[in-house]
Amino acid sequence: MDAPLNADAAELAKFSELAHRWWDPESEFRPLHQINPLRLGWIEGLAGPLGGRAVLDVGCGGGILAEAMARQGAQVLGIDLADKPLKVAQLHALEQGVQGVTYRRISAEQLAAEQAGHYDVVTCMEMLEHVPDPASVVAACATLVKPGGWVFFSTLNRNPKSFLFAIVGAEYVLRLLPRGTHEYGKFIRPSELAAHCRHAGLDLQATRGLEYNPLTRRYWLSDDTSVNYLFATRRGAA
């Protein structure tokens, strides 16, 4: 009997409903477009140039990061369980003539059973706070990366400030995101994510925070991990 998918049907439906707007830089996905150069620069700054490397983007959605990494010369597989965003990602890559990126509707856990130790770099951005069992995704990412390879995560901290900024501020006041995008109880403290990583055999290498100024409408990376934060981890060499 197949194991149940580590997915929330309501979360998949939510992002599928908005899929047609994924590549509109002024849509609900504007924050993803704005932070993408920051994410990509941080990844390459630590893992090195992506050209010619096998890269996996877990929870790729409409393909904003996956496509950007392919443009850097990586061979990218983007995976997600929401069908409509994947179709949007495939169509956009085709329309733009982007080589080196493919997409599959499959979970990280299922892919880990097929392709253990296959990828030089694995990314899992803005996804862990949307699944029932984030530790399972972290473990799958650790299985999928090669020994010595890099795994990058980004998610939201769980504390009163993050509730105020990421839900009240971003969804209700500034309307940067649709209401209901995030559920506070699913936010993950850095200490919790660090424990998941250790348990999966991933060594934490670097942490960064992501901040936003609503007046200048600018994002930047900083040392403040109290709301949005990124983890860079490595699997131990064999």
UniProtKB/TrEMBL annotation:
Keywords carried by this UniProt record: Methyltransferase, S-adenosyl-L-methionine, Transferase, Ubiquinone biosynthesis
Catalytic reaction equation(s): a 3-(all-trans-polyprenyl)benzene-1,2-diol + S-adenosyl-L-methionine = a 2-methoxy-6-(all-trans-polyprenyl)phenol + S-adenosyl-L-homocysteine + H(+); a 3-demethylubiquinol + S-adenosyl-L-methionine = a ubiquinol + S-adenosyl-L-homocysteine + H(+)
Annotated binding of S-adenosyl-L-methionine, by residue: R39, G59, D80, M125
InterPro entries tied to this protein: SAM-dependent_MTases_sf, UbiG_MeTrfase
Family, per entry: Belongs to the methyltransferase superfamily. UbiG/COQ3 family.
Name assigned to this protein: Ubiquinone biosynthesis O-methyltransferase
Keyword Calcium applies: no
